[in-house]
Design a protein that fits this description.
The protein is α/β, with parallel strands linked by helices. The chain has 14 helices and six strands. The chain folds into two domains: 238 residues, P-loop containing nucleotide triphosphate hydrolases (Rossmann fold), CATH 3.40.50.300; 65 residues, Histone, subunit A (Orthogonal Bundle). The protein starts with 32 loop residues before the first strand and ends with a helix.
């Protein structure tokens, strides 16, 4: 969230809601119900999540791969103290920057958090822009045992000889769904998808769908927030300027002084790597800001590509909170 430009949402005129006490507990009506608010960076997910959580006696479970790290606050647009007081947040500040953390660890902690919320009668509102974390939380992690070193070696040799684009075209013939969501230069994932197809005779997309239905303990309403590109990009540029003005340089200097250098994953992320390059004299301040804005816009585009591949996401404008609240109420009340 752009703290300087996106304060806590104002109280909107409410649609008629079922009292929280009248909503059946999720365990009584089948799979527990979870609201997910996702979308690209700077679109307004934190503000929307707080509004929804307040409306339905909820708490927020963060789904951001960088906000899990302590000491990374400004550059990750972590919810402010005021925002965290407004609604309790989970899965924020859970590991130090030099500790390993991945989607599997997130899935474990996230499901523990959801279980605790259900037991306390709270509505879980998952908020974040890391699509893989959201997918792992809702459906588990797909790990196929379909491996054949000989097939992998042959495909790798073909990729070196013909290029990744040629193998991407081959994948489009046997698994168009997977090919459609992979870049033609994504050699690692292209090779993996072709290997699975050759070993099993089935597209990896079909196996992933089966896995999804086999490990789906929650019923989720997934709401994607979207703005037109020009508006989103303006918000991203202003957010970067606000981060710089808000002390991103001091934050990165403090991290470096603690011994968290570029060898650690969080310090390689957008914002932290850019500012570290400025601090070490590799780039000018103006170049640091320019590339940070550019790379954040590119990151938002990649996030949108990921989320738009999910047909279950219901896209809404962050400016239409009354509609969002209405949809969430219908979902929770079983409509």
């Amino acid at each position: 969230m752009l703290h300087a430009l996106c304060p806590l949402p104002c109280r909107l005129k409410r649609v008629t809601l079922h009292p929280v006490s009248s909503i059946p507990h999720p365990a009584e009506v089948g799979r527990p119900r979870v609201i997910v608010i996702c979308g690209p960076t700077a679109v307004g997910k934190t503000a929307a999540g707080i509004e929804v959580a307040n409306a339905f006696n909820g708490e927020i479970v963060g789904a951001d791969s960088m906000q899990v790290y302590r000491y990374l606050d400004i550059g990750t647009a972590k919810p402010t103290e005021m925002e965290q007081r407004a609604v309790r947040h989970h899965l924020i500040d859970v590991v130090d920057p030099d500790e390993p953390f991945d989607a599997a660890a997130y899935m474990t902690l996230g499901r523990q958090a959801l279980t605790g919320l259900f037991r306390r009668g709270k509505t879980p509102v998952v908020v974040g822009g890391t699509g893989l974390y959201i997918k792992a939380l809702l459906y588990g992690l797909f790990r196929s045992d379909a491996r054949d070193p000989a097939v992998r070696a042959r495909l790798r040799a073909e990729a070196e000889l013909q290029g990744a684009a040629a193998l991407h075209a081959r994948l489009a013939q046997c698994d168009p769904q997977t090919a459609g969501r992979l870049h033609s230069n994504d050699t690692v994932r292209i090779l993996r998808a072709l290997e699975v197809f050759e070993v099993t005779g089935r597209p990896i997309s079909a196996l992933q769908r089966e896995h999804r239905f086999g490990d789906a303990p929650f019923r989720a309403l997934k709401i994607g927030l979207a703005l037109d590109r020009e508006t989103l990009y303006r918000r991203i540029d202003r957010r970067v300027e606000a981060m710089i003005a808000g002390g991103l340089e001091d934050e990165v200097r403090a991290l470096l002084s603690r011994g968290y250098g570029p060898q650690f994953k969080p310090m390689q992320s957008i914002g932290y790597s850019h500012m570290a390059a400025f601090i070490t004299g590799a780039v000018s301040r103006a170049e640091c800001i320019r590339t940070l804005q550019r790379d954040t816009r590119r990151f938002a585009k990649r996030q949108l590509t990921w989320f738009r591949a999910d047909p279950d996401i219901r896209w809404m404008s962050p400016d239409r909170m009354t509609d969002l609240i209405r949809v969430a109420n219908e979902f929770l009340s079983g409509a």
